[in-house]
Amino acid sequence: MLLSVLSVLCAGAAAGFGVAAHGLRSGASENQALVDGRATQAVVQQTSAAVRTAFSYNHADPAATREQAQQVLIGDAVQQYNGLFGEVERVAVEQGLQFATTVRSAGVTRLVDDRAELLLFVDQQGVRAESPERRSGSAQLGITAQRVGAEWKISRIEVL
């Protein structure tokens, strides 16, 4: 009797471990960032370029700056960008502010089908019209990107 109970328990545990192992393997194999270097590199390059475009600013032509940013943003990122840059635009025009964003490091944490999640470390250097002194700052961004046709566009922005 005891042997029968132990056999049933062992069989149940083996089945449970098998299901758990399959879940771990299928999740890892689903994440192409772990196995497809070429696709991952394309996401990093295009998303980094999109971040440089969206987070660089020239007070001399705010409409062009906004239009360029809108070309690399979709979905929630459009509203997030508008919320972040509404105040920046007002201050930038008043103070003659210009800044450029550089992506220092970027990594894809998840890439599944046409959706990617990235972590980016960025630097911004800015200058005001009345002062030649350059100012700089750094930030970490959590970015979700969506492939639209052949291009990766930013669909969500999270300042970390």
From TrEMBL:
<feature type="signal peptide">
    <location>
        <begin position="1"/>
        <end position="20"/>
    </location>
</feature>
<keyword id="KW-0732">Signal</keyword>
<keyword id="KW-0472">Membrane</keyword>
<dbReference type="GO" id="GO:0016020">
    <property type="term" value="C:membrane"/>
</dbReference>
<protein>
    <recommendedName>
        <fullName>Mce-associated membrane protein</fullName>
    </recommendedName>
</protein>
